[in-house]
Specification:
heterodimer, A: 3 domains, globular, B: alpha/beta, 23 helices
Chain lengths: 496, 474
């Protein structure tokens, strides 16, 4: 039964993947199916990496260049780009977390009561998720952290607040602890009981509001104070936050009204778990990675969470890395008042003067041959050309390969197939261009020719978000997406 | 120590003769100014009087008002502020002889925020006028008693904040305290756990009315704290506890410290909170002029933050609260029309917030309170029908909040206050049955609250006050 449901849901998700209108409607349907049939979240389907293997034939290329699948650090496809991202160095992330970048050992004595809150800002497709997967893999051990990754596409992407994320974080933490508990740690029942009581009372409070308006109340049972029963309670709360909008709103209201208390309960649980993890040689502390904020359907939701709810975020005393949507980088100064903001740029494959960065090209070649057998290309020149067209974005590059493969003949991806693919992609991408954008692109081209920095203000932001312009280093170096440069409109208006 | 009776007796004796007088009155609570004004009217009903605010006037209007009066009482409030105005005090001093030709008693009120050596300052700045001085009064009143009296008279009551920690009754909260104390004893060396346990315990002790114990825990937290922002927050909590037990002087000290830290770390949000607390404490201490100054700074800051971050609703809400505070102080100063204007502004913002976020209970509660304030001010201005409309609007929202959150202590208390306000309103218009009815409803809520939180003095005081009102209506 669940298998069929999973297929339906997976199909739905792939249909709507790039269509925000359908996404809006189907997200609720997906949530409904998920809650009704009590199946694991759908991102698990995408994370099923068993069939995600190197392509040895052209038919297999399509699967090997899927760009909607984050690659964990231990996967055969994983390529470490951290040393070719211009000014970005992953060692900075480790340092911010008080981790030795060579030994990956966490210094828990430094700043013990002030936890690290780090925002990693990068453009879509820049490889943040893969980089974070690598970091958590390196840090998930007894001398560093108990890493809990929370991909928020499991929540309602159309209707979300920080409250939802925090409850989800707690659920994920409890879920991972529950897996451990049988073997490794035992939580004091009174700690769980107190937390469970507080949660139950809040749900009861929300139920009274729902009942008054004739809505369907949330079902909760007074379970014995065990991790498992608390897990089922948090799962239920989370499920209701992604279910009916009315109920979600009421639940949030209740939790928000009591946020200071909620923060204290969460902090007690986190601090207590940290002690157990340390005493049982599992880890020094918890590290949350909250990824996927850019997947929420609109900017307002993201801005509300990161900027307007920052006061709530900072009340939770736990080491956390949040990925920051690029459009919120402009809020960096406000965030820096209580956190660290680190820019995660694309791989710099060309200098501002146009010179190719060979080291970066070699990384992309490694990236390519891990996914597609070398013999499926007519020459390395074709691969290099495709890499340059990707502009240093792993995801954009995979898209170029996908289009080239579509145009390839039965045997190999050659230069001709690549050019056809690029032409097609360029025509599609140029459709986003408005006439006023052309002027900005002219300025950018001139600045780069003169080796000048182009500072971005709001008018540039839209082009950056749409990947018409790509950013490198700390954002001071920008280039037009090479695919856009191939479009007829660009050639006509700017090149000539 | 209450000096009013003794000192004022001498004053009224002196004023029996119609002649020029220059009298200074130093007071420690603004209610004493009101009392002097009322008593002057009572003892000398035939004499005219003119009131001037020394912090807002200019030389021309001051002397014109004086000459127009011809005879009677010329009351100058905030005389200490007038001494800062170099355009007024030298000119006034030079015209001593002309002023003295009129049978007018100049009564100069010196506010509690004036320097201790204010007399020396007058002597130095206005030596000629000072040489004509007739009398110096120093009026003092027991402020703690005044504060209690204000609470009893239900003139201005704060809403009470009780956390959701532990549960909804004092017994449940005491059980939670035991659990946390045990957990603390088992893990004495882990700083993050220690901090979060102490924070919860401090909140829980405040919840059950053990404010001194709560402050002991806050002191422990301050010892291990390394974060300035948290220090500013803890000091606010500590000051709130002092305020709850009526130790306003101590609460003022810690609120000021919190303000200093917030400014040092440039935390504008917390600076706003601290300004509000310092203003409120000064208001309770009767330093109304000083309170007004802090509330004006608070209002300016919130205006600036709201302008800078128009989409951050918290700033809009804080701006609304700052208008409410300006309204409260002006109401106490007797500037009812101005108070009304501030309360209107507060209501306007409150309605916008409520309509934008109908599920946000803080906004709803804030709007309800603004209706209540408008009700009170209109009642004082004699706009009784309008006052009733506002009290009913307040009640409607408070009832909704209570029904939405029947176990929430704050809303139960808020509803009881709304009943009280309506009870007092109907008592004023002599509709005894309705007054009784509302007082009884308020009483029932307070009985329940005192049973659940027997240590919480506020509930017991409110219950006593309502019962007293009911007795008077018998």
């Amino acid at each position: 039964m669940n298998g069929n449901v999973l297929k339906v849901a997976d199909t739905l998700q792939s249909i709507v993947k790039n269509n925000s209108f359908f996404l809006l409607i189907t997200q609720r349907l997906i949530n409904f199916i998920q809650n009704t049939f009590k199946i694991p979240n759908f991102s698990m389907i995408n994370q099923d990496l068993e069939n995600y293997k190197k392509a040895n034939t052209l038919e297999e290329v399509d699967n090997a260049v899927r760009f909607d699948v984050p690659v964990p650090a231990d996967h055969e496809f994983f390529t470490d780009f951290s040393d070719v991202r211009g000014d970005f160095e992953d060692r900075m992330i480790y340092k911010h977390l008080n981790v030795n970048p060579k030994t990956y050992i966490y210094n828990s004595k430094v700043n013990k009561s002030n936890k690290t809150l780090l925002f990693l800002a990068g453009m879509r497709g820049s490889g943040k998720t893969s980089e974070l997967a690598k970091i958590t893999q390196k840090l998930n051990h007894k001398e560093a952290f108990f890493c809990v990754t929370c991909n928020i596409d499991e929540l309602d992407l159309n209707d979300m607040e920080y409250m939802d994320i925090l409850i989800f974080q707690i659920e994920k933490l409890v879920e991972q602890l529950d897996k451990l508990e049988k073997k490794r740690i035992i939580l004091e029942p009174s700690v769980i009981a107190s937390l469970q009581k507080w949660f139950t009372e809040r749900v009861e409070e929300a139920n009274k509001m729902i009942k008054r308006e004739g809505g369907l109340e949330l079902e909760i049972q007074a379970g014995t104070p065990k991790l498992f029963s608390f897990l089922s309670l948090t799962s239920k709360v989370k499920a209701n936050l992604t279910g009916s909008k009315e109920n979600a709103q009421k639940l949030r209201t209740v939790f928000k009204n009591n946020f200071s208390d909620f923060a204290l309960k969460a902090n007690e649980f986190i601090a207590y778990v940290n002690i157990l993890l340390k005493n049982n040689d599992i880890a020094n502390e918890i590290l949350f990675v909250v990824d996927g904020l850019e997947k929420t359907t609109n900017k307002e939701i993201r801005k509300k969470i990161v900027v307007e709810e920052s006061g709530r975020i900072r009340q939770i005393k736990v080491n956390t890395i949040f990925t920051l949507p690029i459009e919120l980088m402009s809020e960096g100064r406000r965030l820096e008042a209580f956190s660290t903001v680190s820019s995660f740029p694309f791989v710099k494959i060309r200098e501002r003067n146009g010179e190719v960065v060979e080291e970066a090209i070699q990384k992309f070649i490694e990236f390519t041959y891990k996914r597609i057998d070398k013999n499926l290309f007519d020459s390395e020149e074709t691969v290099r050309e495709a890499i340059l067209m990707g502009g240093g974005s792993p995801r954009e590059y995979l898209r170029v390969l996908e289009y080239a493969n579509i145009h390839a003949d039965e045997e190999k991806i050659d230069g001709e197939a690549l050019q056809k693919g690029i032409k097609k992609l360029a025509a599609q991408t140029a459709q986003y261009l408005k006439s006023e954008d052309i002027e900005l692109l002219k300025i950018l081209k001139k600045n780069n020719e003169d080796n000048k920095i182009t500072l971005a203000d709001d008018k540039w932001q839209d082009l950056i978000e749409k990947l018409i312009i790509l950013e490198y280093n700390d954002g001071t170096y920008k280039r037009v997406n090479p695919i856009v440069e191939q479009s007829e409109i660009y050639k006509q208006e700017i090149e000539n | 120590m209450d000096t009013y009776k003794e000192e004022s007796k001498l004053l009224f004796k002196l004023l029996r003769t119609k002649a020029f007088r220059f009298i200074t009155i130093k007071y420690n609570h603004y209610s004493l100014v009101e009392k002097i004004k009322d008593d002057l009217k009572e003892y000398f009903p035939e004499r005219k009087s003119k009131e001037i605010d020394g912090s807002k006037t200019d030389y021309r209007s001051l002397v014109d008002s004086y000459y127009e009066l011809e005879s009677g009482f010329f009351l100058i409030e905030n005389f200490d502020k007038l001494l800062e105005n170099t355009e007024i005090y030298p000119a006034l001093n030079q015209r001593r002889d002309k002023l003295a030709k009129y049978p007018i008693a100049i009564i100069a009120f010196i506010s509690p925020s004036a320097p201790k050596l204010y007399a020396r300052e007058i002597m130095e700045k206005m030596p000629d006028l000072w040489s004509f001085r007739s009398f110096m009064l120093d009026l003092e009143k027991d402020i703690q008693a005044q504060e209690k009296q204000t609470q009893f008279s239900n003139n201005q009551k704060d809403t009470i904040s009780i956390s959701s920690l532990g549960g909804n009754t004092a017994t449940e909260k005491q059980q939670e305290i035991k659990r946390l104390e045990k957990l603390f004893a088992e893990n004495p060396n882990d700083i993050p756990l220690k901090e979060v346990i102490l924070s919860q315990l401090a909140t829980l002790y405040t919840d059950i009315g053990e404010y001194e114990k709560s402050n002991e825990l806050i002191d422990k937290l301050l010892e291990i704290n390394t974060d300035k922002e948290n220090e500013a927050k803890l000091l606010i909590d500590k000051g709130d506890n002092y305020k709850a037990i009526g130790n306003l002087e101590k609460s003022l000290v810690v609120f000021k410290k919190s303000l200093e830290i917030s400014r040092e770390i440039e935390d504008k949000t917390r600076e706003g909170i601290a300004l509000e607390r310092v203003g409120e404490t000064n208001q309770k201490l009767g330093n109304l002029q000083l309170a007004l100054e802090f509330f004006e700074k608070y209002n300016e800051l919130e205006k600036q933050l709201h302008k800078e971050f128009p989409n951050t609703v918290e700033f809009k809400n804080l701006l609304a609260i700052s208008y409410s505070k300006l309204g409260e102080t002006n109401q106490k100063l007797g500037n009812l029309q101005l108070a009304l204007e501030f309360f209107e502004k507060r209501k306007e913002l409150g309605e916008q917030l409520y309509h934008e976020f109908p599920t946000n209970v803080n906004f709803k509660n804030g709007l309800a309170i603004s209706y209540s304030k408008l009700g009170q001010t209109n009642q004082k201005l004699g706009n009784l029908q309008l006052a009733l409309e506002f009290f009913e609007k307040d009640l409607e929202l408070q009832e909704q909040l209570y029904h939405e959150f029947p176990t929430n202590v704050n809303f139960k208390n808020g509803l009881a206050i709304s009943y009280e306000k309506l009870g007092s309103y109907f008592k004023t218009i002599k509709d005894i049955e309705k007054a009784k009815n509302y007082y009884l409803k308020a009483r029932n809520h307070y009985v329940e609250l005192t049973e659940k939180f027997s240590n919480y003095a506020e509930f017991q005081r409110n219950l006593n006050w309502v019962e007293n009102q009911l007795k008077q209506l018998q």
